[in-house]
C-alpha cells in the first residue's frame, strides 16, 4: 500500500511520485550544467584557438629565425670544415713525409745492420769451419794418442820438427843404428866428439790417462804405481840399449811430447826424475828440448868458427893489404888535389891582374893638355909593380 510521504501544495505524494520528481529535477539540473559547460567550452575553445594561432605564429617566427641561424651555422661549419680539411691534409702530408723519412732511415739502418750481421755470420761461419777442423784434428790426435805406434810417430814428428828447425843436417841423424843393433829415435853429433847423444821420443801414456781418470783414492794410488812402473821400465830400457861405451855419450835424453805430462811428472813424481838423473837420463819437454838444441846449435856454430879460423885470418890479412893499397892511393889522390889547388891559386892571381889592367884601360883620359891637340891620347904610366 502506498502511503503518502509528503504533501505538495496540500496534495499528498507517494514515494514513486516523489522519486520521479527528484529524477526529473536532477535531470533538469544536469541539463543546465551541460548547457553551461557547453557555453563555457565554446568560449574557452575560441580562446584556446586564438592562443594556438598565436603560438603557431610565434613558432613559425622562431622557426624562421632558427632556419636562418642554422643556415648561417651551416655556412660557418662548411668554412671551418674546409679549413679543417686543408689543415688535416697539410698535417697528413707532413706526417707522411716524416714517416717516409723515418722508414727510409730505418730501412738504411736495417740494411747496414743486415750487412754487419752478414759479415758477422760470415766470421761465425769461418770460425765454425775452423772449429770443425780443430775438432777433427783433436779427434785425430785422440786416436793417435790411443794407438801406441801412432803416438810414437806423433812424438817422433814433434822431436824431428824441433831438431830440423835448429840444427844443420850434419849434426843429427834419425833412426840411426848403433853397434848393438839398437835404433834410437835420434842421435846428435857434438863438435870434436865422435860419441853420439841419444834422444828417445817414445813415452808411456796409458798410466797417465788412468791417473787422470781415477776417481777414488785407491784408484789414484794404483794409477800412480803404474806410472812409476811404466816410466821406470822405460828408463831401464834406455839405460840398457842406448849406452854403448865409446859410441854414445854418458847421458841420454828422454823426450816427453807434452808440456802437461812433463808438468805432472815433475810435480807429482819427483822420485822418477831423480831416478832418471841417477841413470844419466835427462827428461825434457818440448820447450826444454828447444833450449837444449839451441845450446847445441851455439856449440856447433863456435866449432865451425874455430874450424874456419885460419881462413878467416887469411881473409883478414888480405883485407889489411887492400886497406894499405887504399891508403897509398888516397895519398896520391891528395897530392893531385894539392897540385890542382896550387894551379887554381895561380889562375886566380892571373885573373886578378887581368881585371886590374881592364880597370886601367877603362880609366884612361882623352882630354887636351900640354899643347897637345884635342883628342890626343894621354896614357897614364904603367905601374910595374902591378904586373
Account of the protein in words:
The protein has 387 residues and is α/β, with parallel strands linked by helices. It has a domain at 162-315: Trna Endonuclease, Chain: A, domain 1 (3-Layer(aba) Sandwich), CATH 3.40.1350. 72% of the residues lie in helices and 8% in strands. The strands form two sheets. A five-stranded mixed sheet has the order 3-4-5-6-7, with helices on both faces. Helix 1 packs across helix 2. It is elongated and about 190 Å long. The N and C termini lie far apart (216 Å).
Brief account:
The chain is of the alpha/beta class. 72% of the residues lie in helices and 8% in strands.
DSSP helical segment count: 8
What is the end-to-end distance? 216 Å
Main β-sheet description = 5 strands, mixed
- Helix fraction by DSSP (H/I, runs of at least 4): over 70%
Strand content: 5-15%
CATH class call of the domain at 162-315: Alpha Beta
Average of per-residue pLDDT values = 76
The residue ranges in which pLDDT falls below 50 over 5 or more consecutive positions are 1-11, 368-387
Structural class: alpha/beta
Q: Overall 3D geometry? A: elongated
- The strand line-up of the biggest sheet is 3-4-5-6-7
**Helix and strand run:** EEHHEEEHHEHHEHH
- Any guess at the CATH architecture of the domain at 162-315? 3-Layer(aba) Sandwich
In the CATH scheme, what's the topology name of the domain at 162-315?
Trna Endonuclease, Chain: A, domain 1
What is the C-alpha radius of gyration, as a whole number of Å?
A: 70 Å
Report the strand count: 7
Amino acid at each position: 500500500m502506498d502511503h503518502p510521504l509528503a504533501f505538495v501544495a496540500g496534495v499528498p505524494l507517494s514515494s514513486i511520485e516523489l522519486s520521479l520528481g527528484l529524477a526529473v529535477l536532477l535531470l533538469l539540473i544536469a541539463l543546465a550544467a551541460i548547457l553551461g559547460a557547453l557555453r563555457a567550452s565554446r568560449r574557452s575553445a575560441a580562446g584556446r584557438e586564438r592562443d594556438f594561432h598565436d603560438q603557431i605564429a610565434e613558432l613559425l617566427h622562431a622557426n624562421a629565425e632558427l632556419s636562418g641561424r642554422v643556415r648561417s651555422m651551416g655556412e660557418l661549419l662548411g668554412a671551418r670544415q674546409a679549413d679543417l680539411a686543408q689543415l688535416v691534409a697539410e698535417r697528413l702530408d707532413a706526417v707522411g713525409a716524416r714517416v717516409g723519412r723515418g722508414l727510409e732511415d730505418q730501412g738504411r739502418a736495417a740494411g747496414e745492420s743486415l750487412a754487419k750481421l752478414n759479415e758477422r755470420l760470415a766470421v761465425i761461419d769461418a770460425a765454425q769451419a775452423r772449429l770443425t777442423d780443430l775438432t777433427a784434428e783433436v779427434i785425430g790426435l785422440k786416436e793417435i794418442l790411443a794407438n801406441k805406434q801412432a803416438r810414437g810417430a806423433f812424438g817422433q814428428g814433434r822431436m824431428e820438427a824441433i831438431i830440423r828447425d835448429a840444427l844443420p843436417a850434419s849434426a843429427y841423424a834419425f833412426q840411426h843404428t848403433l853397434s848393438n843393433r839398437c835404433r834410437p829415435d835420434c842421435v846428435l853429433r857434438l863438435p870434436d866428439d865422435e860419441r853420439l847423444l841419444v834422444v828417445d821420443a817414445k813415452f808411456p801414456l796409458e798410466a797417465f790417462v788412468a791417473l787422470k781418470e781415477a776417481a777414488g783414492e785407491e784408484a789414484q794410488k794404483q794409477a800412480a804405481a803404474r806410472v812409476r812402473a811404466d816410466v821406470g821400465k822405460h828408463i831401464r830400457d834406455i839405460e840398457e840399449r842406448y849406452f854403448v861405451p865409446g859410441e854414445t855419450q854418458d847421458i841420454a835424453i828422454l823426450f816427453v811430447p807434452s808440456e802437461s805430462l812433463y808438468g805432472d811428472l815433475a810435480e807429482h813424481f819427483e822420485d822418477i826424475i831423480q831416478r832418471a838423473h841417477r841413470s844419466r837420463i835427462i827428461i825434457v819437454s818440448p820447450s826444454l828440448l828447444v833450449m837444449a838444441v839451441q845450446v847445441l846449435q851455439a856449440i856447433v856454430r863456435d866449432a865451425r868458427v874455430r874450424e874456419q879460423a885460419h881462413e878467416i885470418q887469411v881473409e883478414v890479412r888480405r883485407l889489411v893489404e887492400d886497406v894499405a893499397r887504399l891508403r897509398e892511393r888516397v895519398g896520391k889522390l891528395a897530392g893531385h888535389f894539392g897540385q890542382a889547388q896550387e894551379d887554381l891559386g895561380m889562375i886566380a892571381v892571373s885573373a886578378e891582374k887581368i881585371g886590374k889592367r881592364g880597370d886601367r884601360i877603362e880609366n884612361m883620359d882623352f882630354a887636351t893638355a900640354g899643347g897637345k891637340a884635342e883628342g890626343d891620347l894621354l896614357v897614364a904610366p904603367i905601374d910595374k909593380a902591378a904586373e
